[in-house]
Hints:
Blueprint: E1 3-6, E2 10-15, E3 18-23, E4 26-30, H1 35-46, E5 48-49, H2 50-53, H3 59-71, E6 75-77, H4 89-97, H5 102-111, E7 113-117, H6 121-133, E8 137-141
Parallel strand pairs: 7-8
Antiparallel strand pairs: 1-5, 1-6, 2-3, 3-4
Helix pairs in contact: 4-5
Amino acid sequence: MRAYRLKPSCRLIKEDAHLFVFIGETQVRIKTHGPRVFELLERLIEGATVDALVELMPQKQVEDILRKLIDVGLVIPVYENDFLDTEYAKHIDFFAELGLDPNKIQRSLQERCVLLIGVGGVGSIVLQHLVALGVESFILIDKDTVELK
């Protein structure tokens, strides 16, 4: 069964009878809630399946809450991290938070060949960032010659 979680950038704050979810500087107030809704959101911090959340309330209610949270961009699906033991492991959370299939995006980056025209000041920085993203193949064009010393 599919698992879901709150976006990593979300924070939960409970004040008296109010529940707030913060995404960066944006604040979302959950209007109607009980202790079970707060517990559901707490479970979603680490990620939970619908089956695990049904322990708190009826399945239809869980599915309705999840659908609303997904629609407003607070909850995302949990993806297996195919790049767990690589330097690209942290990219998976980033791409998932954008609503993309993170493993597919990372594999796509690794399969790309990028043509970079000019590898001077700006081009060399762009090259470093593309390498850090996982791009593995490049065609570099520059009018200068390189002298080995």
